[in-house]
Write a structure and sequence with these properties.
This protein has 335 residues and is an alpha/beta fold. The protein has 11 helices and 10 strands. α3 links the parallel β4 and β5. α6 packs across α8 and α8 packs parallel to α9. It is globular, with a radius of gyration of 20 Å.
Length: 335
């Protein structure tokens, strides 16, 4: 089955052609980073307007790269939520219109479901497994028993980890988006020079909290009494990143042990972080677990990641109705 996938949950306009839920024929992403960088974060109204401008061009390019036409498409997979409601509506409305015009089925896919199933586009992975979703809007632990079968084990109680990276980068004057900038600085700093707190690290539950680490960085910078210099910035970034990845690793491997799972998927935009990847590789050797990260192109928001679940639901006979709406909040357990 050839599926056209459309993703517009935040500030990336993306379309992809995926065959049989595993083969990526094209995966086109139009970024809005330059638009939102001046504001230090995503402006929802601007994101929606940019999606409207980009989506026909992105779909045309995805079809061109895949060397096919709309007549070849057998179904559509559309991000229904969660995300910015205006942004979601652009992709969802476009997809439903195409489905109606071509008389083919379309299904709504959960954004995070797409992320945690993305590795199946590149490697073999057996169910069940543990999934850690880490992005600008999510930090969740799931038990994944199959496509469409998810159990939330833990979640952030305040900031998502990607949000914390962006906020710390902003207060350090590094600009937006901050995750990659902090990662680059951290690689040159001493992670032991400054020890920031590890919230909830030793709690029995599997929840996360990152607002305290962010506040600790703010207080440390204020306590310096001057603007941090290059070496100080490197050590602050390294100390902050070390605290974050230690908490993520501890909770993820604790969850895997409790659930008696030996496979862990780490997905979402923050999964590109080099420090996180190194730390999980070390823990995998220590615990005898297999850890799977998607390739960087499939970590950030992209449409191809919707192809795994989309193909599954379409083959099952699912199809959305014309009145299916976007949802800004959508618990994975309720899929």
């Amino acid at each position: 089955m050839l599926v056209l996938c459309i993703e517009t949950s935040c500030d990336e306009t993306s379309a992809a052609l995926v065959r049989d839920g595993r083969q990526i024929l094209s995966n086109i992403v139009a970024s809005q980073i330059d638009v939102h960088a001046r504001y230090g974060g995503v402006v929802p109204e601007l994101a929606s307007r940019k999606h409207l401008e980009a989506i026909p061009l992105v779909i045309d390019e995805a079809l061109r790269v895949a060397d096919c036409t709309l007549a070849d498409v057998e179904g559509l997979a559309l991000t229904r939520g969660p995300g910015l409601i205006g942004a979601l509506l652009v992709g969802l409305s476009t997809g439903k219109a195409l489905a109606l015009a071509r008389a083919i089925p379309a299904v709504g896919v959960h954004h995070i479901e797409g992320h945690i199933l993305a590795p199946l586009l590149e490697t073999k992975l057996e169910f069940p497994f543990l999934a850690l979703a880490v992005s600008g809007g999510h930090t969740h632990l799931y038990r994944v028993d199959g496509i469409g079968s998810y159990t939330t084990l833990g979640r952030t109680l305040d900031d998502a980890v990607g949000e914390a990276f962006d906020k710390v980068a902003k207060l350090l004057g590094l600009g937006y988006p901050g995750g990659a900038k902090i990662d680059a600085l951290a690689s040159e700093g001493d992670p032991d020079a400054i020890r920031f707190p590890r919230p909830l690290l030793h709690k029995a539950n599997l929840n996360f909290s990152f607002s305290g680490i962010k506040t600790a960085v703010l207080n440390y910078v204020k306590g310096l009494g001057h603007e941090p210099g290059p070496e100080e910035l490197r050590d602050i970034a390294a100390g902050f990143q070390a605290a974050v990845v230690e908490v993520l690793g501890s909770k993820a491997f604790k969850a895997a042990e409790q659930q008696r799972l030996t496979q862990i998927v780490v997905a979402g935009g923050v999964a590109c972080n080099s420090g996180l990847r190194r730390h999980f590789a070390e823990l995998a050797d220590l615990h005898g677990c297999r850890v799977v990260f998607p390739s960087p192109a499939l970590c950030g928001d992209n449409a191809a990641m919707l192809g795994v679940a989309g193909d599954f639901y379409l083959r099952r006979g699912d199809a959305c109705q014309a009145d299916m709406n976007a949802v800004s909040n959508w618990p994975m357990d309720n899929i």
